[in-house]
Amino acid sequence: xxxxxxxxxxxxxxxxxxGYIAPHDDPIWNTWYxxxxxxxxxxxxxLSERQAHARGYAGHPAPNVKPG
Length: 68
Fold this sequence. Notes:
mainly alpha
C-alpha cells in the first residue's frame, strides 16, 4: 500500500496515491515505488491479503496519476 505523509508539503500526485493498494508484483510499482522525486517522504507498507481486503482492496485498476 502506498503511504504519503499528507501534510502541506505533500505533492498532489503523491496525496492522490495515498492508500493505493496493489500486489507486490504489479507493474504500477515500477513507476510508483518511493522515493518519487526530490524530498519525497512517501513509503510502501506491506499488507497481507487479508489486511488488503479489510481496507477495501478488490483488484483496483492502476491510477491515472504520474509521479512527480
